[in-house]
Amino acid sequence: MDKSNKRDQKKKRHNPLYQQITEDKFAKSSTRVKVRNRSKEDENEAVDSKLTEKIISEARKQLEDVQEEVGLDSMCKQLQTSHLFEGLPDTNEDEELENPAASNEEADEKEELEITEEIKEAFNKFDPEDAEEKTKLAEALKENLTGKLTEIYTLYSDVDDSSLHKMDDIVPIYKDMARLMSIYRSGRYISTLEPFRAIPKFHNWEKILFMTEPENWTAAAMYEAVRIFSAIMKEDMAQRFYNIVLLPRLRDEIAQCKQLNHHLYRALKRAIFQPCAFYRGIIIPLCESQCTLREATIFGSVLAKCTIPMEDSAAALVWISRMPFNQANCIILRVLIEKKYALPYKVGDYLVTYFLRFLDDKRPLPLIWHQCLLTFAQIYKNYLTAEQQQQLLKLLTVQPHKLVSPEVRKELLSATLRPPGIVV
Predict the structure, then answer these.
(1) Angle value at C-alpha 276, between 273 and 277, nearest 5 degrees
(2) What is the DSSP secondary-structure string of 175-242?
(3) Which of 336, 350, 349, 267 is nearest to 308 (CA)?
(4) pLDDT at res. 56
(5) Among 62, 188, 288, 395, which residue's CB has the most CB atoms within a 10 Å radius?
C-alpha cells in the first residue's frame, strides 16, 4: 500500500464520539463576514431646499385644482361672509405659514392693547401682593362657599324623604318585614334580606326602622339586628340604635323576667363590637337614669367578660366618676377597675377625687362603695402621690368599715408612691 493513501485515510478520520456529541449540542458561529459598500449617493440622502420648495408649490397647485373641481373654495367664501364670522379678524393663512413669528408678535400686541386698567385692578384684587389681604380674600371666599353649601343643604333637607325614596313603595315592604321579625325564631333568613340591610343607607333610617316595629321583635330577631347593624352602621348611628332600640328592650326584659333572655344577652355582648357606641349609647345613659342594682349587675357581667379597648373604658371611668353617687354606678366602676387596665395617671386622679368627695359626707356609705375603694387600692395603689395617700387614710377615719377599712389601710401603706413631678 502506498504512503500517500495512508495519509489520505488519516486525514479523513472522524473525531471522537464525545466531541461529536458536544458539537451537536451547541451551535457553531459562522465565519462569514458581511461587507456592505455604501456609495456616496446613499450617504447624502438629505433633500435640497430648492427641491422641497418645488414639491410644496406643486402640492398647493394640486389642492387648488381639487378645490375648484369640488367647489370647496366657494363654500369657504360663503362661510366667511356669513354672520357666524362677524367680528372676527381677517387673517391670511399663507402669511401666517410663511412668517409665524410675526403673526405671534402681532397677536401678543393685540392682546396687550385689549387689557384695560379696570381689568388690571380686578386681577390685582384676586392676586394681592400683601399677605394680610391674601388671607382676607381666602376667608371671604371660604365664607361664600360655606354659605352656598348651607343653602344647597337646606334645599335638599327641606325636601321630604318620602318623595326621594318613594315611601308608597317602601311602606308595604317594611310592614311585611315587621310581621316576619315578630315571628322569627332561628336561621339566617334576616341576614339575607337586602331591604333590612339597606336601612342604614337611608337618610331617614330611624323612621324606616320603626316601620318594622322593634318593640314586637323576638329576642332572636333582636340579636340578628344587632349583629347586622353593629357591623354596617357608623359609630353615631350605632349609638343611636343602641340607645333608642336595644337599651329599652333590655331594661323591659329585666323588669319583667328579672333576667335577660339568652339571645338578648348575646345581643348585648355583640354590641361591644363598637365600644365607643356601646358606652355612649348603653352604659352611660344607664348610669345617668338611676338604674337598679340588678341591671348594673347584668350589664357589669358583660363588661367583665368581654375585651374592650383601654381608651374607651378610661373615658367611661372618667365620665362615671363625675356623676353623683349611686350604688349601681359603684358596681360599674368596680367592674371597670377590676379589668386592670394600664390607665393614665390622670384617670387615677379622677378616681381619687371621686372617693375624696365623701370626706365631708357624714352619712354611712354602703358596702358596695367600700368594696370599690378596696379594689382601687389593691390595683392602683402605686398611682397615688404622698398627698393623695394621706387624704385617703383620713377618709378611712371619716367613713370606716369594720371589715373593709383595715384591708384598705394595709394596701395604702404598702404602696410605692408616685413621684410628685409625674402627671401623665
Answers:
(1) 75
(2) HHHHHHHHH--SSSTGGG-HHHHTGGGSTTHHHHHHHT-GGG--HHHHHHHHHHHHHHS-HHHHHHHI
(3) 336
(4) 81
(5) 395
Closest CA to 209 of 164, 178, 234: 178
* Cβ 223 vs Cβ 229: under 8 Å: no
- Inter-residue contact 354 to 372 (CB < 8 Å): no
H/E stretch holding 418: none
Do you know the residue count of the chain?
424
Please provide the DSSP assignment of 134-179 as one string. HHHHHHHHHHHHHHHHHHHHHHHHHS-HHHHHTHHHHHHHHHHHHH
For residue range 117-140, what is the model confidence (pLDDT) as tens digits?
A: 777 676 666 667 677 777 777 777
Beta-carbon neighbour count of residue 373 at 10 Å? Answer: 30
Comparing CA positions, the residue from 156, 224, 160 lying closest to residue 190 is 224
Say how far apart CA 397 and CA 406 lie, in whole Å.
11
Give residue 358's pLDDT band: very low, low, confident or very high (50, 70, 90).
very high
- Give me the mean pLDDT over the 373-380 stretch: 95
Q: Are the C-beta atoms of 274 and 236 separated by less than 8 Å?
A: no
Cα 168 from Cα 166, distance rounded (Å): 5
What are the residues whose beta carbons fall under 8 Å from the beta carbon of 32, sequence distance 6 or more?
A: none
- Residue 422's contacts (CB-CB under 8 Å, 6 or more residues apart) are 345
Whether the model pTM is above 0.90: no
Task: Quickly list H helices, 243-365.
Answer: 247-257, 262-270, 275-278, 284-288, 293-305, 310-321, 327-337, 345-356
Cα separation values, 221 from 127, 180, 314, Å: 62, 9, 32
